[in-house]
Design brief:
GNAT_dom, two-stranded antiparallel sheet, Aminopeptidase, three-stranded antiparallel β-sheet, single chain, alpha+beta, GNAT family N-acetyltransferase, Acyl_CoA_acyltransferase
Length: 86
């Protein structure tokens, strides 16, 4: 899992997550745990939001939505999703 600083129109720095796993139940559980830990880490660092892009047909879209990510931009094959940290 990686984090890439991004800046949106507001000028606010928004980290962009990069998480790649193969699709198995065990790996999906690990991916969810990694995502939870990374969101907590970024929240503790004072970030207010985090983004990611994902292919529309990727099985992880459901997981991201369950975490609270929302689609903020839709392209032909991808979603740009945003999560607001607390």
């Amino acid at each position: 899992m990686g984090v890439i600083p991004q800046s949106f129109k507001s000028g606010e720095i928004t980290p962009q997550l990069a998480l790649y796993t193969i699709r198995t139940k065990t790996i999906s559980i690990i991916g969810a745990k990694l995502l939870k830990e990374k969101l907590e880490f970024l929240n503790d660092k004072g970030y207010r939001q985090v983004s990611l892009s994902v292919e529309k047909d990727n099985y992880a879209v459901k997981m991201y939505k369950n975490f609270g990510f929302t689609v903020i931009e839709e392209k032909e094959n991808d979603y740009l999703m945003l999560y607001r940290l607390k």
